[in-house]
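Changelog-adjacent note: as of this version, every example in the card shows the full chain rather than a window. The one below runs 161 residues end to end.
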Amino acid sequence: MSKYDKLKHTLLNRLEELEQSKENDEEFETTELSNYDNHPADNATDLTDQHTRLALRKHSEEEIADIKEALTAIDEGIYGVCTECGKEIPMERLEAVPSTTTCVEHAQQGVNEEIRSLEESVLNSTTDQPVEDEDPRLRDYSNSFEILEEVGSSDTPSDKQ
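Full-length structure tokens:
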């Protein structure tokens, strides 16, 4: 009996749960025949539900891949050893995250910049550390509205009277 048998059992149970959940996952379908008379909030709710379901599905697929990788490592006798540095992974970490194949030092902890929203680069541009493309005139907040209005606004000619 291996010291990792309990963890292997935990991984197999979780894998079975995820695969059953994947089989029972219904494809997103709207009940509306036409969106013409829908309130925009109803359409937004449907879209949000669809995005949430897609994100959860992606997360489940990644978790399944991690579990399969950990199970392969158990079968090959290399489970519990960091794939990056070769040091032994503490049992506490394995119990907390049974699908891990790395030690804490080599765990992916950074933010994936590719999935960050485009708006963040604009919203965070006027800080103490300006973005390279930022207009230097925007650092002075007193005239920022006038500078931005040069580009255009939603005002109609009747609003300017």
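Structural remarks: The chain has five helices and no strands.
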